[in-house]
Amino acid sequence: MIDVSVSIDVPSLAEGFRFYSEAFGLEKLATPYPGVMVLKGASATITLLERHEHSKPSPHTTDERHFSRHWTPVHLDFHVQDFKGALVRALKAGATQEQVFEHPQHGSAAFCADPFGNGFCLLQQRPVPAT
């Protein structure tokens, strides 16, 4: 069996923890090393990695980290039952709403970004019909 966790670069552990705990109710599980905080909530383990603005993600690149909105092919999906409540909490915690698709039959979706430029989606969980 393989366990999967997600790591997110943030400029400040305190700000990262504040956002992810207020927006999604994640709790601090551990701080195993300076600049690293492991969060837990529902079925996810998310590790926040404190990285400085303009630091290099690899010694083999000229790229630098920045915390304005950026595109990446990988993002988080948060599956929620109370879609509107979850969206309000995320926005109040500092998220940016980019698009919302309302679909009463299949469930709504919101494309958002955290305060550090990382994209995420809120996806409304719909009950599976009984067969």
Give me a quick take on this structure:
By secondary structure, this protein is of the alpha/beta class. It contains 2 helices and 8 strands; from the N terminus they run βαββββαβββ.
Number of strands: 8
Taking the alpha carbons of the first and last residues, their distance comes to: 30 Å
Rg from alpha-carbon coordinates: 16 Å
Second rung of CATH, namely the architecture: Roll
Helical/strand content category: alpha/beta
H/E series? EHEEEEHEEE
What is the CATH top level name? Alpha Beta
**How many DSSP H or I helices?**
2
Domain module tally: 1
CATH topology, which one?
A: 2,3-Dihydroxybiphenyl 1,2-Dioxygenase, domain 1
- As a percent range, the share of helical residues equals 10-25%
Average pLDDT, rounded to a whole number, is: 92
As laid out across the biggest beta sheet, the strand order is: 1-4-3-2
Report the sheet-strand fraction.
35-45%
- Biggest β-sheet: count, sense, barrel? 4 strands, mixed
Low-confidence stretches: none
Please identify which CATH superfamily we are dealing with.
Answer: 2,3-Dihydroxybiphenyl 1,2-Dioxygenase, domain 1
Please state the overall shape, judged from the principal axes of the Cα atoms. globular
